[in-house]
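Give me the 3D structure for Homoserine kinase.
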Amino acid sequence: MTSSVSRVTGFVTHPVTVRVPATSANLGAGFDSLGLALSLHDEVTAQVTFEDTEVIIEGQGADTLPTDESHLVVTSLHHACRALGAPTPRVKLHCRNGIPQARGLGSSSAAIVAGVSLAAGLLASDGDGNTVDDAVLLRIAAELEGHPDNVAPCLLGGFTIAWTDPDGARAVRLPVADDVSPVIYLPSGRGLTTHARAALPGRVPHVDAAFNISRAALTVHALTSDPSLLLAATADRIHQRYRADVMPSTIELVEVLRQDGVPAVVSGAGPSVLAFDQVIRPVDGFEAIRLSVADGVTRL
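Predicted structure for Homoserine kinase (300 residues):
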């Protein structure tokens, strides 16, 4: 892999901290391509150590995530180091997690982006400034995640369109209209992306594919220029309805909100629901959280 990395001379000795946002992928019609960064964050600090790798976790996932080298931030950091031609260091990692786990808010993508960004920050080189550009980090992160729809907004921030070329993932960030108002409806139950993807058919009708193409294109206009079109833009026929058996309460909430005129979609692979609404509505079984569109990964 080619990159803008200067000649690596080792690792910096000081700790490096990054802040990564939650994300919501698909946004209805834009399956595996559209994504939005949201204002829930993980903050992760890494420092190279000569001792065994140590992972300290606070907040979300503190009782369930691994605390050794199998932690996703560590494996992503190591993968990025190898991709950038560097050795894999032992690290002391401190994770302060604010992104709910397994809820369709990009927690795994946040861990991956944190890992590859920390790798870039820890590398010492003979050049000046940032040693790795975002395009390289995106390709590395998407290799790990398998698709770029979540890692793109996590890395770049805002509203992104992502795609994959023969040489890897690419993405663009577009401005979001000021009156876009995201609300997340967060269920207590967790979901698994593997189960949600397993529910999808191998083929969809041509008419449904054409329907989604038009709505995905409209979503770009609606989010950037005219949010009044978001209800029409976020309609979907190729993935959400197939997941009804996996997350019935999620699909039911999406349908209820949309019948009430609220643009609502399954957030990523679920089970959270993303709505664009000026009001927060009480819903049994879900915690409603007002969020804003966030910037991408930040070095602190």
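The domain at 8-174 is CATH 3.30.230.10 (Ribosomal Protein S5; domain 2). Let me know if you want a second pass.
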